[in-house]
Amino acid sequence: MGKIKVLKTEIRILQLNDEDYISLTDIARYKNPDRTDDLIRNWLRNRNTLEFLGIWEQLNNQDFNPVEFDGIRMQAGLNSFTLTPKQWIESTGAIGISSKAGRYGGTYAHKDIAFEFASWISVEFKLYMIKEFQRLKDQERKTLGWDIRRNLVKINYRIHTDAIQKHLIPSELSAAQISLMYASEADVLNVALFGKTAKMWREENPEKKGNIRDYADVSQLVCLSNLENLNAHFIEEGLEQKVRLQRLNAIAIQQMRILTSETRLRLEENKDE
């Protein structure tokens, strides 16, 4: 569950069927914290609201019941007409609104519908909510991009360590010796790219958690991914570690020059825009 804060009001966000559903209950709390259910019901009984919900369901829900919807729409506007989220869902098979009980209970709606409800509550609140929601999505995309790049490095590291086991580790070595061999080969890449071993970095940064690669920037992670594949290839060719280190360092310098210059160029272009 995600959360955003809009004008000092905390708004919960759920993932349902790979879609973002925003709490209508929390949005209503901004207007009147003591009458959230009443506000949602009043919004639902509005003819314009029902027209919007009906069109949304027809566009996104193949199991939506248009016959039941027509019956509800005909009653809209009558003084005696009332409608709860649960009644709407059960009568029409709607998926745009979800009524939940329990710890994360309340009424949730697909973001398209939630923004419409927020506009009914307060245009100002809606605009701030859109801004905060977009900020959350941008942050999630950045995190996802980082995870993809990090996982790419891990996958290539498996290729790298498989090559080490096949070509550098004699079968008679003990488990402790094998572990040392892996550490040595990992540091070939660390020294080639960062100019120091993992141990040297830890001694220089005792207050930091993780390892030297956790603090690498995007350009360094891309370069590291390439170096892992190249080192595996060099191991296959039977090159000595000293030779491989020299080659990898030269390649790292060349690639980092290209990557950093491209990053600098993109920043200058964005600045011009």
Summarize the structure.
This protein is of the alpha+beta class and 273 residues long. Helix content is 67%, strand content 10%.
Write the layout of secondary structure elements.
Layout: E1 2-6, E2 9-16, E3 19-23, H1 24-31, H2 36-44, H3 47-60, H4 66-75, H5 85-92, E4 97-100, E5 106-110, H6 111-121, H7 123-167, H8 175-194, H9 198-204, H10 218-236, H11 241-272
Antiparallel strand pairs: 1-2, 2-3, 3-5, 4-5
List keywords for this structure.
273 residues; alpha+beta; 5-stranded antiparallel sheet; elongated
Distance between the termini: 36 Å
Spell out the helices and strands N to C.
EEEHHHHHEEHHHHHH
What spatial order of strands do you see in the largest sheet? 1-2-3-5-4
Which range does the strand content fall in? Answer: 5-15%
| Helix fraction bin | 55-70%
Averaged pLDDT, please?
A: 83
| Class by SSE composition | alpha+beta
How would you characterize the overall build of this protein?
The protein has about 270 residues and is of the alpha+beta class. It is about 65% helix and about 10% strand. It has eleven helices and five strands. It has helices spanning about 25-30, 35-45, 45-60, 65-75, 85-90, 110-120, 125-165, 175-195, 200-205, 220-235, 240-270, and strands spanning about 1-5, 10-15, 20-25, 95-100, 105-110. It has a five-stranded antiparallel beta sheet with strand order 1-2-3-5-4. The mean pLDDT is about 85.
